[in-house]
Write a structure and sequence with these properties.
297 residues; alpha+beta; Phosphorylase Kinase, domain 1; Aminoglycoside 3'-phosphotransferase, Chain: A, domain 2; five-stranded antiparallel β-sheet; two-stranded antiparallel ribbon
Amino acid sequence: MSFSRMVGVQVTPSVPDRPLAGDDVFEHLPGFQLGERLRATDKAVTVAGRWRGEEVVAKQLTSTDRHWVKRFAHEVTAYQVFAASPPPWRTPRLHYAAQRLLVIQRLPGAPPHTDRYPPRLPEATVTGMIDALAAFAAWQPPAGPLRKPATDLPARIRRYTAAGDLPVDDQHTLVAAVTAAPAQFGHGDPLPSNALSTGNDPLIFIDFEFVGFYPGGADLALLGLWLGRHDPAAEQRCAQTAAAAGHLHSYRAMRVLWVAREQRLYHGLFDTAGDHRQWLGVQATAAIAAFRETARA
């Protein structure tokens, strides 16, 4: 039995390169009352609204890129799995899913920040984000689509190395580090903009396009990279948390990969002017040195 039938959600399969149909557009969803726009990126638009008497959030995938179509379908699957086997943190209920449109329950709270590299956040917020990722790492999803590696990391390492984004001498040890590390369930995209905080309830992460299994400490390494731009102490906390769990080596390996990915993203998508490119270069050098240190230990 499919997860969609188990939880009673209408779902149609995702088809790459398919143009938007009537059921993939906010305005054509029967009974949907469009509210404020919450976020718009080069791949999706997210809005608030009301549907069938409930406060909801609707996401419309605007990209036809196969990667994002696949990720969108994966997020729908994640909501279905969470409904059938609830994790120990709050997750929005999936109300509706078409090929490029989903409607979910709107949970209370607001993101701690919307910048990829936010200014220094309150210590309580950093603690909440680290605790939320610890909850992900401790959860065991049921057998099925979420109990798999979220991405092929050895292939990514080889691709980055071939492109000159990683040192050739580190390819073998990086592959060994990510494949030998204990795998944990992870969020995969713990941006502050993907978190919700109410000030009272525990902070939670939403937006589940990249959930799946990762080497231990992978989420912490990514969070530490983003927070550490303006708060090095927050990155140190992430590293210490990973080390306390026995994942320092895989944390450092994933930090090397995440920095390389950010360099590639900023080269192709974002403004690379100013000191951010230089900062990423410094982080890449430091991350490789730290990884080599634990690899030799």
